[in-house]
């Protein structure tokens, strides 16, 4: 790629490209990220819609906050189970409101740690039983 073709005006994210200079040598050039400049707004819009639809599922009590954060953080059931330290079948049950509401504080704290949120954020989305 020629130096003139490598320039992207995107100050929020800079990258280093190796481009061909006018003298024929390849050298490093700092420029903006093409992907950030052209696709970040699309990503943010899709993520916002995903978050809204997941939040609606929790509000309508079709899914639990564990499901909300698992999908939002793009974790598989196996990954989440490994990070929380529970069997996959157990975590699968916690994706449903009825089983989620029976969680103890210790398990809820494990989920909060994995999702990097406060326990109160999980409880505020859907209170526990007793």
The strand order across the widest sheet is: 1-2
Strand content: 5-15%
Overall shape: it is: elongated
Largest sheet: 2 strands, antiparallel
The low-pLDDT segments are none
Structure, described:
- The chain has helices spanning 3-6, 34-59, 65-72, 77-84, 88-94, 97-100, 105-115, 119-125, and strands at residues 14-20, 26-32.
- The protein has 130 residues and is mostly helical.
- The chain has a two-stranded antiparallel sheet.
- The mean pLDDT is 94.
Task: Give the topology, please.
Layout lengths: L2 H4 L7 E7 L5 E7 L1 H26 L5 H8 L4 H8 L3 H7 L2 H4 L4 H11 L3 H7 L5
Antiparallel strand pairs: 1-2
Helix pairs in contact: 2-3, 4-5
Features:
130 residues, mainly alpha, two-stranded antiparallel sheet, elongated
Concise summary:
By secondary structure, the chain is mainly α. The chain contains 8 helices and 2 strands. It has helices spanning 3-6, 34-59, 65-72, 77-84, 88-94, 97-100, 105-115, 119-125; strands at residues 14-20, 26-32.
